[in-house]
Amino acid sequence: MTDDAASPTCLARPLGPGDSSTGCAAARGADGRPLHAAALKFFWGPMDCGKSTMALQMNHNHARQGRRGLVTTRIDRSLGPRVTTRIGLAHDAVEVTDDLDLLALVRGTWAEGVRIDYLICDEASFYTVAHVEQMAELVDGYDVDVYAFGLATDFRSCLFPAAQRLFELADEVARIQVEVLCWCGREGLLNARVVDGRVVREGEQVVIGDTVDTADVRYQVLCRRHHRTGDLGPRA
Ligand SMILES: [Zn+2]
């Protein structure tokens, strides 16, 4: 997946001398790089579907083409300002707090002489709705691409507010296609919160847990059927 492939109409092509096509005449920047309409894209899926891995892969792909980006996260499993992945990749990141303004972050970085072409926003469902509005403003007002990655729903199977706003505002929404399986073999769709071996359905929307069996609070991906019945399978 590349963002260029999904860009509308005006894909860059070299303009020859005398090429008077008007529609794409402004499609290249002063440095000769193709310009494209910036976009807000939301990639979502349950735990373990590889969201952070895909976020870092996308960052790598864009950086390799000479684009400059920032990686942001909130409540990464490392509990630090880093994006870490279950398969061992890691990248420094800006920790998003309630009062962090993404516009100010980008403008401040520009002011230091560092161009920012895109943001990779990992764990975006834990951001605030205001952050999502800022993402849209970065795209529309500043021509910065924003790629957000996160869960859609919480442990009760209800949308996170930021995820809802992303579904409402994003130019493109994609479910990540790496299948995660429930213990029964069906496709895993929902995250269950497990406390003392039981699925809980009430509590704070965000509680840090782990996916290892020994954690006090842990999360397990289940199919809808077993999320509804609370059946954690034979190993539980
Ligand atoms: Zn199941």
Automatic annotation (TrEMBL):
UniProt family annotation: Belongs to the thymidine kinase family.
Gene Ontology MF term list: ATP binding; thymidine kinase activity
Group of enzyme by EC: transferase
Keyword Nucleotide-binding on entry: yes
Domain of life, source organism: Bacteria
Active site positions: E123 (proton acceptor)
Binding site for substrate: V206, V207, I208, G209, Y219
GO-annotated biological processes: DNA biosynthetic process; thymidine metabolic process
The enzyme's E.C. designation: 2.7.1.21
The protein's name: Thymidine kinase
Keyword annotations: ATP-binding, DNA synthesis, Kinase, Nucleotide-binding, Transferase
Reaction(s) this enzyme catalyzes, per UniProt: thymidine + ATP = dTMP + ADP + H(+)
Organism the protein comes from: Micromonospora nigra
GO cellular component: cytosol
Spans annotated as Disordered: 1-21
Coiled coil: none
